[in-house]
Structures are given as C-alpha cells and as structure tokens.
Amino acid sequence: MNTTNTRDAIMMTRRKxxxxxxxxxxxxxxxxxxxxxxxxxxxKPRETTAxxxxxxxxxxxxxPNPAHPPGQAGKDYAPVITPNGSTLPWKIVDGVKVYHLxxxxxxxHEFAPGLVANCWGYNGSVHGPTIEAVEGDxxxxxxxxxxxxxxxxHWHGILLPNGMDGxxxxxxxxxxxxxxxxxxxxxxxxxxxxxxxHHDEMTQMAMGMMGLFIIHPRNPxxxxxxxxxxxxLSEWKIEVGASRxxxxxxxxxxxxxxxxKAFPGTAPLVAKLGDxxxxxxxxxxxxxxxxxxxxxxxxxxTETDGGQIPDSAQQHETTALTQVGSTRTxxxxxxxxxxxxxxxxxxxxxxxxxxxxxxxLVGIQTQGLNQKIRQLIPGYMVMGQDGMGDMxxxxxxxxxxSIPMVGGEGPFGYITMGGMFTILKVRAGITxxxxxxxxxxxxxxxAEMASAEELRRDAVELPKDLPQAALFKTEELWCxxxxxxxxxxxxxxxxxxxxxx
Length: 501
Ligand SMILES: [Cu+2]
Hints:
Elements: H1 3-30, H2 34-53, E1 91-93, E2 96-112, E3 115-122, E4 131-134, E5 138-145, E6 153-156, E7 180-186, E8 191-197, H3 201-206, E9 210-216, E10 227-236, E11 255-258, E12 269-272, E13 276-283, E14 290-294, E15 299-304, E16 307-308, E17 316-317, E18 319-322, E19 326-333, E20 338-344, H4 369-374, E21 408-410, E22 413-415, E23 421-427, H5 452-457, H6 475-478, H7 487-491
Parallel strand pairs: 2-5, 4-9, 10-13, 12-23
Antiparallel strand pairs: 1-2, 2-3, 5-7, 6-8, 8-9, 10-11, 13-19, 14-18, 14-20, 15-16, 15-17, 15-19, 20-23, 21-22
Bound molecules: copper (II) ion (CU).
C-alpha cells in the first residue's frame, strides 16, 4: 500500500468521521435514552470505516485507528526482558511490523534440571516468544500451524476488530495443520497482554500454547523502567516419570511455573541499586490464581490488562494477586541491596512434583520403620516426619524424569522452595546484568544462632522440653552424612549417638 494514498485515505476518513460524529451527536441530542446514545457512539467509527472500505480489496482497507510509524527499541521504549524466554523478532514491511509465529510441538522442554517433557509451543519454545510492540504500531502476525491438530490464536486483552480475535469457529476458521493465517490490526492501547490458543484450549493451553504480548506506550509519562521483567504464570500436571503434560487434569497440578520454568530452573532478576524496576505478571493457568509476593519491597500496582490505574487509585502492596486470565504490573525502585525472594504465596505452588502423594507423617516417630517396610518393599524410604523440607536435599535418587518436591542450593544451605520461585538480586556497583552470584552481607546483618551469652544478657528463658530431633536423625534418615553445618547437631549433646539404625 502506498504511504501517500494511505495518509490521504486516513485524512478522508477523519473528515468523514468528524462529519459523521456531528450528525450522530445532533441526532443523539434528540434521544432520551442515554444507553441508546452510547450505543450509537460506539458504532460510529465502524460505520465510517465500513463506508470507506466498501468495495476495496481486503489488503487496501483501512483500520479505523490509523497507525503511527513503527515504534523503535531504544528510542520509543526500553525492551522488555522475558526471564528464561525470548522476544519474537519482526521486520518492517511498508510501515507494518510483521511477525511470524509457528505453532508446533516442542520436544523435551526443560522445566528444571531433571524434568523435561514434550510440550506444544511456538517457534520452538515453551511458552511462545514474547511479542513486543508500541501503541499505534500496525502489526501483521502470520501464524503457521505445525501441530497435528487445528489451532487458532487469541490476542488476549487486545482491542481489535472482531474478525481478528481468534476464537476458532466464532471469529475465524480453525487453522488446519499445514496452513498459515494472517492476523492484522493496529494497536490502540498499551500494557501487558497475552496470546494463546483458542481452539481446544483445555488441551492446547495445558500443553503450553501461550505467550506474552507487551505493548509499550507511544508517549510514556514519567520515567521509563531501567529493568522491565515479564512473566507468564502457568500450571501443569506431569505425572512422575511421564513425558507429557496431562491436559485432562482439573485440580491436582504438580508443576507451577514462571515462564515455563520451576525453581531451581528459574533465572534470577538482576537489578542495579537504584534501578527503576517493573515486573509484569500474567496468568494463564488452567485453574489457579497466584498471589505473587516480593520480599524486601513495597510497590504500587500501576496497571492491569484493563488499563492504567490512576495514581490516586494505586494501592501500595507487597503481593500482587494475579487471577487467571489477567495481568498485573507493578513498579518500584530497587533501593535495598540483597537477594530477595519473589514467589507465589500459595504454599503448594512453591513445590514441585513429589510433594503431593505422601501420607501425612508430620510428628510421627519413624525410627526402625525403614527396616520393617523394606521387608515388604525393597529400598523404601520413610520421609516427611519433620515436614517436607528435607526431601530435596536428602540426595535420594529421584524416579526417572522427575524433580524433588522442593529445591535448590543457597548460600546458607538448601532453599526449601520450588515451583513459582525466583530471586531478585539487587546490587551496588555491578557493571552488567549477569547473575552476580549470592549476596555478600555486611558483617553483623545476617540472622544467626543466638549465643548463650546473648540469651543470658536478655533474660530469654528457653522451654525445658526443647526438641531432641537429633536423636532421631540417624544417618539413614538423612540419606547420607548428617549436614555438617546443622546448628542443631553441633549444639546438641546427642551428636555422638548418631548411628546407622
Ligand atoms: Cu500460585
């Protein structure tokens, strides 16, 4: 399409629009019913555009919302970061940003070291790459179907003509295997949005078919973020040892992910001290809402996928509840250095596969139980008597293709978290955003075991019946040597009695 002609067409449309609006406003004034007036006004641009577009071939029809020149990274916006993910490349053809998504099976997506599965995604990744654009951009997105099943793509939360909305059967034909469809629209909003399959959603979304769609403002108000992180939250059922997610699961999910990764597979978020940080959360889980909690900071939720929240209405929070099918964006200044947890506060969402199917043994004294059960089940291992925190670090051999309930090594021992968990690393004096390693705390700023002298000084009375857990922590139950740095064992006189049962 010739640029000059387009501009003329747009100008013509605007004139007609203004004229049409005046006519409608005039007739609207005669109407009593406010609702009718509103309905008429909502119809205006479409009627006007329809008139302009009448008898024009499809490719020459104009959008009611004229496009701006394509927004440029660095000039018009600071690119968003998708931890553990990527941004979909595009090219510009005649002023239109052209993208190409390929819906396809993705072999052996790794959720965390030790757990891989055959999923479905886009362009070889699970979830699909992030689509990034600028308000006012005209976008043309080709979708090629390499799946063994029909599919379609819905642009979730994005304002667009009805025929581009992507609900197979309702707004378009399903894209059959081997076919390529074209979606094209002008972005009339900015914010954090999503895309996902809208054909056999239950199956296709459970297999991973979703991604982020970030639209930057054309004329941003205030400061741009220095670090702009975007997450897709999702949940999966992958039976221990299975090689595919189970789309039929309705309630009992066992893998919870940030950008399709479970801790310790999640990348840390690195910021320099003083950076303005934005975190965008979007949730396309099958069934769960996720209250995502950031340690060490207060923040303001600045927008949802329904738009910007006026300054006066922004609440200060430490947790952003992101319900299914929606997004939440929050901003803060990273002014406190350290390694800060960022995680879902549903406690079962910060665990991995193997926390689900055990009897409750908390509080049960289990000494000798291994031997008895092993007479019936060779290799049986008792676990859970002190909670599940030890499970990851026991060093037990996991079943094939599975990850322990929790876990990753931290600077002070095992981090008893899994699933939707990652770490915001705020550092002074860093020159790159590479993982800076663990935070080095200034001396005297780490919680540690109280000394006898301190307890005496502050007259802290200890209960008489302190747990003697070390009595029961035999080598066998620790599945190897007891942890050398256990404060309990180091302090407890029963250390010498630890033995193999
Ligand atoms: Cu959650």
